[in-house]
Amino acid sequence: MNRRIYRSKELVTPKQEKEATSAEIACLFAVQLENALICDAAVLQELQRAGIINEDLAVLIQGFYTDIVAVYTPLKKPRGRLLKSSQTAVHKLAKKSDAFTRAYKKFITQRGYGHKRTDQTLKMLCDDVTHFIHNFELTYSSIPAKRDSQGAILPPSKLALPNRPTDIKQRALFLKEVDAYQKEKGTAKYPRYKKIARAMSAASYKFPERTYGDWKQQHRLKIFDHFIQKR
């Protein structure tokens, strides 16, 4: 809302505050993640000193920490807009987080490290990473608002839309195939491209392998239902 300011009985329009860029917003999430990692590390180091976390598990955790730090550190120095390379790095981190979750749970089960606090802390660590990834994706896919001379937000331009919205019925078919496969197999994995491609072909849809990769990644990151997806 614009405030009315009068100087010498003359109406003056106040300057609009500069809106934060997507890179500046992502920087805040990067700092938030870093603070969360410090808290998680303090608990994990305490468990290691107590002998609950042995050297092998500690190496696994340290490797994951190294991957996380490598992704968020560049984001702490915002430079105008978010780069495609940052999104690619975040996508890779999502896969590494899934792999780490499977690895540490398998490790704890096989080696007998059933300490609840260890499991809870590592779950919190993964949840912190997931929270960061989700917020990064929302920020990266957002469309900056433009304002008129009075500060009112202008309607979005079609030129600002990153990609055309995809066919809703085709996306629904993809989701149906994925859900059916995961329920049948009892897994979080995805059906192979050829399996979904056959279903798409039967419904008279074109379905390039690149689209399969994009949609699978969006589904994994829980942003598949977003109307606009940015490459």
Word description of this protein:
The chain has 231 residues and is mainly α. The chain has helices spanning 22-49, 55-72, 84-111, 116-140, 168-185, 193-202, 209-220; strands at 5-7, 10-12. A two-stranded antiparallel sheet has the order 1-2. Helix 2 packs antiparallel against helix 3. The protein is flat and about 60 Å long. The protein starts with a strand and ends in an 11-residue tail after the last helix. Mean pLDDT is 81; it is low at 227-231.
Can you give the mean pLDDT?
A: 81
Strand order of the largest sheet: 1-2
Report the structural category: mainly alpha
Radius of gyration: 23 Å
Give start-end ranges of low-pLDDT stretches. Answer: 227-231
Helix proportion = 55-70%
The ordered H/E elements are: EEHHHHHHH
Alpha plus pi helix count: 7
Distance between the amino and carboxyl termini: 34 Å
| Backbone shape | flat
Taken as a percent bin, the fraction of beta residues is under 5%
Taking the sheet with the most strands, its summary is: 2 strands, antiparallel
Number of strands: 2
Task: Annotate the secondary structure layout.
Layout: E1 5-7, E2 10-12, H1 22-49, H2 55-72, H3 84-111, H4 116-140, H5 168-185, H6 193-202, H7 209-220
Antiparallel strand pairs: 1-2
What would you say about this model in short?
With 231 residues, the protein is mostly helical. It has seven helices and two strands, in the order ββααααααα.
